[in-house]
Amino acid sequence: MIELSLVLLAGVAAGVLNAMGGGGTFVALPALVAFGLPPVTANAVSRAALVPGAVASAWVYRRELTPVGPASTKALTVISVIGGGVGAGLLLVLPASSFDAAAPWLLAFATVILAFGRHLSRALGSALGRSVSMSSRAILIGQFILAMYGGYFGGAVGIMMLALWSIGLGLDAAVSNPMRITQLAAIYLSATVLFLIASDALSASLLLTAMLVGAVIGGFAGAHLARLLPALMLRGILLTTAVITTVLYFLRG
């Protein structure tokens, strides 16, 4: 019961983080690995568990969706679903050792994006000029690549989406956040369907259920809290979690 309670709390934290700015993977994946699941299985379980939380957050924001440039919401969502499925397929097809070796570096990459993504967005946006705007095709190609990454690993993929939209279209992160959450739900949903069919995620059904319940609570609450907490405080908590998790993964390897 103690173990399940801790996993449930990790699910709440992951759901809150995903709803408020991204980074739930930094909590969910290490928590499941700490309780004995192999990294690939833990990745599949965390992805499946975070889907309902992402959907709950998307429901809260359903009236605040704004299009991403010239790309239609329907086309963007379809691309997210397809890309998420492709990334999940790569996770299942490639040897488990590949993910074990890549996980610390993926965490490090996501941490760097989290720490410096906004500065990079502003610098590139300034260099490119706001008059430069991505075409619908470019947006969809970029989204497909990010969705594949999200299906395979997922760490900070929502932050990367905001960075892409900010650089290429000049969209404000706060305005884009509801669409980010919706696309995150689409990526996780397609990956989860594949994981539940082809992976051993269901072998850890108790841990999956505990994290799922927590993620729903966290996702719903986080979407409301996102409008109340200072953005700086949230970023500080998220970045601290990301750095600690990345260091521990490297030490573990």
Explain what the structure shows.
The chain is an all-alpha fold and 253 residues long. It has one domain (2-252). It has helices at 2-20, 25-34, 39-60, 73-93, 96-128, 136-152, 157-169, 173-198, 205-225, 231-252.
Secondary structure layout plus pairing:
Layout: H1 2-20, H2 25-34, H3 39-60, H4 73-93, H5 96-128, H6 136-152, H7 157-169, H8 173-198, H9 205-225, H10 231-252
Helix pairs in contact: 1-2, 1-3, 1-9, 2-3, 3-8, 3-9, 4-6, 4-8, 5-7, 5-10, 6-7, 6-8, 7-8
Query: Helix proportion of residues, in percent?
Result: over 70%
Poorly predicted runs are: none
> Can you summarize the main beta sheet?
none
Instruction: Tell me the strand percentage band.
Output: under 5%
Q: Tell how many strands the DSSP assignment holds.
A: 0
Order of helices and strands: HHHHHHHHHH
Tally the structural domains. Answer: 1
Question: What shape does the CA trace take?
Answer: globular
Arithmetic mean pLDDT: 82
Rg for CA atoms: 17 Å
Q: Classify the secondary structure makeup into a structural class.
A: mainly alpha
- List the total number of helices: 10
